[in-house]
């Protein structure tokens, strides 16, 4: 059933957009909110559609009788009134700005359980529509919902550790290697050495936690980006993690950053980083002819909504895990997007920049065993919290 775009304006609905109370946005938002609308789907499912100008990075949380959708690096839309269809579980919709994040808070007539992955769609622009985050849900027990949160709080996704019914397969890619050292710190620390050390430690911890893991390289070997991506395919991986360390012209810049694949970079810095990483073997990320047949198939398949959505979901969870571990974050959005060749496959994945070798203090941290253990522990938690089941 197609969602009605008719606005059903009741007196109570007029109070749902409290944009007059929103603080003035003092940041340059990458994304913009276009529309919010509700509808009814077969099976008496409530549908919530959030339309944005750019591909959204989002998380979900479930306070008492509410559904909170948090959009990273997005500004509130003071002129927007939601299109509210009759007969849904949603009684009101509110926008609340929390720093550089926008919360869409849906008040519910009845509690709901955590929305299953296959009831979440992230649709690309089509005709008159921009990017759409589509959530379908029904009334539930609400027993897994989090406690009530304040409207100004940052929403975080309710997560639970994966208890594998089978051994989920994780491929860990230590970036660079061999003739390609990657970034080199002022103290001489090479990126390829740092990420290989972290990758080996991560493999051991994930193996001990019940996952089946593979390394794209276990020694100082040079691999082309297409080969790295193909390993994830050949191992039938459930998740692909590419580990790197960053560099920046500003020696003061520090902190981790997390990226997922996108044909369009989310910002200038993401574009430059993708160019630098892709230059490792001079692969033209838009040139299909440079890849083997199976990788060309993968290049097309990755654009499927489910794989892209799963990658963003993992990346958001990883960013949260890093921050909970008190690991410094690079200023900017939790998750960035860029056309990294190494992420081009049908396997959900993310590229994790563990810190900046160009920063003297962080260079010392990145080569220290204790800090590497801290990074590994955060990544393990992010993998355990990720919902592998579709």
N- to C-terminal distance: 24 Å
Helix content: 10-25%
Strand order of the largest sheet: 11-10-12-15-13-14
The major pleated sheet works out as:
6 strands, mixed
CATH A-level architecture of the largest domain: 3-Layer(aba) Sandwich
**Low-confidence sequence ranges:** 1-27, 146-163, 278-305
- The number of distinct structural domains comes to 2
Structural class: alpha/beta
Task: Give an overview of the whole structure.
There is one protein chain. The chain is of the alpha/beta class. It folds into two domains: 13-137, Sandwich (Immunoglobulin-like); 169-385, Aminopeptidase (3-Layer(aba) Sandwich), CATH 3.40.630. 24% of the residues lie in helices and 24% in strands. It is built from seven helices and 15 strands. A six-stranded mixed β-sheet has the order 11-10-12-15-13-14, with helices on both faces. β8 and β9 (131-137) form a beta hairpin. The radius of gyration is 21 Å and the shape is elongated. The two termini are 24 Å apart. Mean pLDDT is 78; it is low at 1-27, 146-163 and 278-305.
Q: How is this structure best summarized?
A:
The protein has helices spanning 191-208, 225-234, 268-278, 293-301, 305-324, 360-366, 369-385, and strands at residues 31-41, 45-52, 58-61, 66-71, 74-75, 90-98, 101-108, 120-123, 131-137, 169-174, 212-215, 239-246, 257-261, 335-338, 349-356. It has 390 residues and is an alpha/beta fold.
């Amino acid at each position: 059933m197609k969602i009605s775009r008719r606005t059903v304006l009741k007196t109570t609905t007029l109070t749902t957009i409290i944009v007059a109370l929103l603080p003035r946005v003092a940041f340059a938002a990458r994304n913009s909110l276009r529309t919010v609308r509700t509808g009814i789907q077969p099976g008496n499912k409530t549908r919530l559609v959030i339309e944005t100008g750019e591909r959204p990075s989002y998380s979900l949380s479930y306070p008492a009788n509410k559904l909170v959708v948090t959009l990273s690096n997005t500004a509130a839309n003071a002129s927007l009134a939601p299109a509210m269809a009759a007969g849904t579980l949603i009684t009101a919709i509110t926008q609340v700005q929390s720093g550089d994040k926008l919360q869409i808070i849906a008040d519910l007539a009845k509690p709901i359980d955590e929305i299953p992955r296959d009831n979440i769609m992230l649709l690309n622009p089509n005709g008159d529509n921009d990017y759409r985050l589509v959530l379908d849900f029904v009334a539930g027990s609400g027993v897994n919902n989090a406690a009530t949160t304040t409207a100004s709080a940052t929403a975080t996704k309710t997560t639970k550790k994966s208890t594998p019914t089978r051994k989920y397969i994780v491929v860990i890619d230590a970036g660079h290697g061999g003739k390609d050292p990657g970034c080199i710190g002022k103290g001489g620390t090479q990126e390829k050495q740092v990420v290989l050390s972290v990758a080996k430690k991560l493999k051991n911890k994930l193996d001990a936690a019940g996952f089946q893991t593979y390394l794209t390289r276990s020694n100082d070997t040079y691999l082309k980006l297409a080969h790295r991506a193909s390993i994830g395919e050949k191992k039938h991986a459930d998740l692909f993690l590419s580990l790197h360390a960053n560099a920046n012209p500003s020696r003061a810049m520090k902190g981790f950053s997390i990226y997922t694949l996108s044909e369009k970079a989310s910002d200038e810095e993401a574009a430059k980083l993708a160019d630098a990483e892709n230059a490792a073997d001079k692969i033209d990320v838009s040139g299909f002819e440079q890849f083997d047949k199976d990788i060309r198939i993968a290049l097309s398949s990755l654009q499927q909504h489910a794989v892209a959505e799963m990658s963003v979901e993992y990346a958001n969870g990883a960013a949260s895990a890093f921050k909970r571990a008190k690991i410094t974050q690079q200023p900017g959005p939790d998750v960035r997007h860029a056309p990294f060749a190494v992420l081009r496959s049908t396997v959900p994945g993310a590229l994790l920049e563990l810190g900046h070798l160009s920063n003297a203090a962080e260079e010392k941290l990145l080569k220290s065993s204790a800090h590497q253990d801290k990074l590994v522990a955060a990544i393990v938690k992010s993998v355990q919290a990720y919902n592998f089941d579709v």
